[in-house]
Write a structure and sequence with these properties.
single chain, alpha+beta, Multidrug-efflux Transporter Regulator, Chain: A, Domain 2, three-stranded antiparallel β-sheet, 3 helices, 3 strands, about 30% helix, about 10% strand
């Protein structure tokens, strides 16, 4: 049987509040796998782990940084170095 997590466990793992998880559920950002007969949310453990450690087979993302300097003398500090 697959491991299911309560909303409290997911909030601790992701470091967000329970109300944030409820809001994400309403907006469709993170839906629970199912609800109990008492209407409590249950999340699949693998789904939460994939949020924390996305698959490495996904496309690599390129991060772009915008910087500025306060004087002409600092311009060389912004040059890209490998």
């Amino acid at each position: 049987m697959k491991k299911m997590l309560s909303i409290e466990e997911v909030s601790l793992i992701l470091g967000v509040s329970i109300s944030t998880l409820r809001r994400w559920d309403k907006k469709g950002k993170l839906k629970p796998k199912y609800r109990t007969f008492g209407n409590q949310r249950r999340y699949l453990f693998e789904d939460i782990i994939n949020i924390l450690e996305p698959n490495t087979c996904k496309k690599e993302r390129l991060n772009i940084l915008y910087s500025r300097v306060s004087s002409k003398g600092q311009e060389n500090d912004l040059k890209y170095k490998k």
